[in-house]
Design goal:
It is a single chain. This protein has 363 residues and is α+β, with helices and mostly antiparallel strands. Among the domains are: 155 residues, no CATH class; 83 residues, Leucine-rich Repeat Variant (Alpha Horseshoe). It is 38% helix and 11% strand. The protein has 15 helices and 10 strands. A 4-stranded antiparallel β-sheet has the order 1-2-7-4, with helices on both faces. A two-stranded parallel ribbon has the order 3-10. A hairpin with a 2-residue loop joins strand 8 and strand 9. Helix 1 runs antiparallel to helix 6 and helix 13 packs parallel to helix 15. The longest helix has 20 residues. The radius of gyration is 22 Å and the shape is elongated. The relative contact order is 0.15. The model has no long low-confidence stretch (mean pLDDT 95). Its cofactor is [4Fe-4S] cluster; cob(II)alamin. Pfam families: Fer4_16, QueG_DUF1730. Its main location: cytoplasm.
Length: 363
């Protein structure tokens, strides 16, 4: 048990925690209480509408997501952190998205798995606190448990939840990861973030699948990030042509956000693009066997979807491209793949390219 803190000591500890966080590579640290009643009602309505799709775990977790003390008993405060991830020297995003021969990977996934990077830093932060005040109750989270991380970060003053439902900062845009340290420390809290989206609707208008169904409302079932990462089965056919060449996630709503003109490139070596995935040739990606996929995605968040879904996504992207001999040939080689999922998507893509090659109209 940590020593009791008076108000002055708690304020000084909070100041030092923020300084330590910056030293550990976080760009911002804020502190909030655990009251998320307003966000809980929105979450429950979203779940009731079925907008979480196949992410059944979100419903199973119930109120543990919106009530930190249910997830980690004894929690009084949440220390929220952000770490910029925009990779330096990566190919310009729109140039990749507009080249049908290439595949687009969401910029957060180009480097090392962020879960490991942030969790390690949060543990170091907890160790620094422990060295100062003795053992205390805490638990670190990085997108790995039922946590309303954006709501907590907003309460901690790190920014506000934008119309695309991502967290936005006036100083840093949205190209950053979030992490949390649930603690039993009676720390002073920071003022919450204030919204600055104004009348802008750029993110709503650019969404390829119209997944942002209203300001601040996202239907995950339509979101390309959900379709390429969370969805385990077949991608609904009406949505496939809208996905373009996006094979792992989608950044369009962030790319058009005016606040991202203030975003900074990451200084973290772990977030630099690896294995040429900032603009890879689709035909080469579909030719990867499972061993190659595992080798090229080692230590990456991409590996979580597995080789089968990777081939599914790449096949769709090829089907949205041009009827080049290389594309048709590699798709034909996947029509006898052991996986029905891969065979079906490769077949769809082949049929689409062949119709295009013969001038037949298609959707």
């Amino acid at each position: 048990m940590h020593k009791a803190l008076n108000d002055t000591e708690a304020m000084e500890l909070a100041r030092r925690i923020k300084a330590w966080g910056l030293e550990l590579g976080f760009q911002q640290v804020g502190i909030s209480d655990t009251d998320l009643d307003e966000h809980e009602s929105r979450l429950l309505a979203w779940l009731d509408a079925g907008r979480h799709g196949e992410m059944d775990y979100m419903a199973r977790h119930g109120t543990r997501r919106s009530r930190p003390v249910e997830l980690h008993p004894g929690t009084l405060r949440v220390i929220s952190v952000r770490m910029d991830y925009q990779p330096p020297e990566a190919r310009e995003s729109w140039s990749v998205i507009h080249d049908p021969a290439l595949g687009f990977v969401s910029r957060y996934a180009l480097g090392r798995d962020y879960h490991k990077v942030l969790r390690n830093r949060l543990q170091q932060l907890a160790t620094r606190i422990e060295a100062e005040i003795g053992p205390f109750g805490y638990r670190a989270f990085v997108d790995s448990a039922p946590v309303l991380e954006k709501a907590l970060a907003e309460k901690a003053g790190l920014g506000w939840i934008g119309k695309h439902t991502n967290l936005l900062s006036r100083e840093a845009g949205s190209w950053f990861f979030l992490g949390e340290l649930y603690t039993d420390l009676p720390l002073p809290t920071d003022p919450p973030g204030e919204a600055h989206c104004g009348t802008c609707t750029a993110c709503i208008e650019v969404c390829p699948t119209r997944a942002i169904v209203a300001p601040y409302e996202l239907d995950a079932r339509l979101c390309i990030s959900y379709l390429t990462i969370e969805l385990k089965g077949a991608i609904p056919e009406p949505l496939r042509p809208l996905m373009g060449n996006r094979i792992y996630g989608c950044d369009d709503c962030q790319l058009v956000c005016p606040w991202n003109r203030f975003a900074r490139l990451s200084a973290e070596p772990d977030f630099r693009a690896r294995h040429g995935l900032d603009g890879p040739a689709l035909a080469e990606l579909l030719a990867w066997d499972e061993a190659t996929f595992l080798a090229r995605t080692e230590g990456s968040a991409i590996r979580r979807i597995g080789h089968e879904r990777w081939l599914r996504n790449v096949a769709v992207a090829l089907g949205n491209g041009e009827a080049l001999p290389g594309s048709i040939g590699v798709l034909e080689s996947r029509t006898d793949h052991p996986s029905p999922l891969v065979r079906e998507h490769a077949g769809w893509a082949l049929a689409r390219l062949r119709r295009r090659d013969t001038g037949v109209q298609h959707s």
